[in-house]
Design a protein that fits this description.
This protein has a three-stranded mixed sheet. The chain has helices spanning 2-6, 50-58, 62-68, 78-85, 95-117, 122-141, 152-159, 165-185, 194-229, and strands at 17-21, 37-39, 45-49. 60% of the residues lie in helices and 6% in strands.
Amino acid sequence: MGSRAFGLATEGSDTDRRGVFLAPTPLFWRFEKPPTHVEGPGEERFSWELERFCELALRGNPNILECLHSPLVEHLNGTGRELLDLRGAFLSREVYGTFTRYALGQRRRLDADVRTTGAPRWKHAMHLLRLLGSARDLLRTGELRLDVGELREPLLAVKQGEVPWAEVEARMARLAAETEEALRRTPLPAEPDHARVADFLFRTRRASAEADADREVVQRVMGAGLTGQG
């Protein structure tokens, strides 16, 4: 994730890794439930349990949706492949609200920096421009693409503080207006496909429970065989 997934990495960029894990179904039958997320191992690593990840994605959480659409996938099993095939089920017009609220929060922080220090945090300004452009294009096309492509150099110029703040503000205002206009014509459905995602979760949990039951049978059979040999 981060700059590497956005096509904005430079020599000093960190490598942020995000993942999704499936907690075995029998763990949910206990009073103490499995964690909804796990930090690590190592720095800049964070993973969500599958159900929590899907919940956040259905709400249109920008960070989660970007994780789901990252072009850089390092490890993928069958369940992960099916999750990626579901990417379109999480997208809807509701992303306008979630992306806009997230962008407004980031903008307030930038304005606070300008008031206190006279300048914004340019890296944050760059990523806000990237987010606004991503939201606009998502609403226009119905697809979420992370790599900024030909916008890499103009965005990196903002990160380096080479673009006046007034011009950056003007870009943000223009992107916000274009995003609002894109909402009126978007091909995205009104709501995400909750039923399709729920079916995926049910089948995944059931398969996990059945696999655990099969392991118990094998262990008992092997134990009985070993006892008979003794």
